[in-house]
Write the structure tokens for this entry.
Amino acid sequence: MGDVAVGARSGHDGEEHRGHPVGAADPAADGAVTSGNEPGETGGGAGSGGQPPTDGQGSGAAPAPKKQRSFWKELPILVGIALVLALLIKTFLVQAFSIPSDSMQNTLQQGDRVLVDKLTPWFGSEPERGEVVVFHDPDNWLAGEPTPDPNALQTFLSWIGLMPSAEEKDLIKRVVGVGGDTIECKKTGPLLVNGKALNEPYVYPGNTPCSMDDQGGQFKVKVPEGFIWVMGDHRQNSRDSRYNQSDKNHGMVPVDEVVGRAVVIAWPVNRWDNLPVPDTFEQNLNARSAALTVAPQGLALMGAVPLVLWRRQRNKAAQTR
């Protein structure tokens, strides 16, 4: 009976208070409509106002900032990243090489450091006339040459590209001919490419474009496809394609042995410069184009002969009528 009375009374009270402001008599109803910051809330639990406590230690507080690693803990990670990047750059982009001799004077001096483009060969680019290229020794060109013995640190730094290459089986020369070209030297020059003379201001002062000797300085060769013919700018002090014609490639360098094109002198600072293709190689040196310039003239002559003979026969026939 008491439970029924209380329930009835509560319903009656609810009818009595309809339309009037809600007071503090119904805490459950207050909790459903208040923001949790109104007077009368104790904030002691989740059920009192529907909000978590905000004493600075709960989930409502801003997270404390993480403690950063010390510099000495991050240093090995940074060094590792730098080494990986250097190795990738050396393998796929550019590599430093040191000039060991005077064979490319005055374009390059002994001790210069050059940066070699290794990226374009990955996309099928092949050496072109006039470029200065680094290539692996094709067939013991460096036989008998002294080779330095780098220590472990130098070997490692050159391996990752932070120092010029310690690999002394590499050479650097200028490309004079590519596959299909005919290269010729008579007396002191000029050097002929497919019958066209080169103007070579980069040749070392006092040198002649061609060397007067019987060891290879006088020659006429045709470069096979897939090979290049190279010569040093210091013509009388360069053991290049001319003087290696007795090797298995007849002095030619396989394109596959080319590391890349030298594009910049990076060291010493006072010699910073790029290595462009000289203007003399901008002329039309293609063997095919030279043949095509002659072919139309020959075809015209061959076509004119029958026409002349036909007209002569026609004139004779007219005179006998």
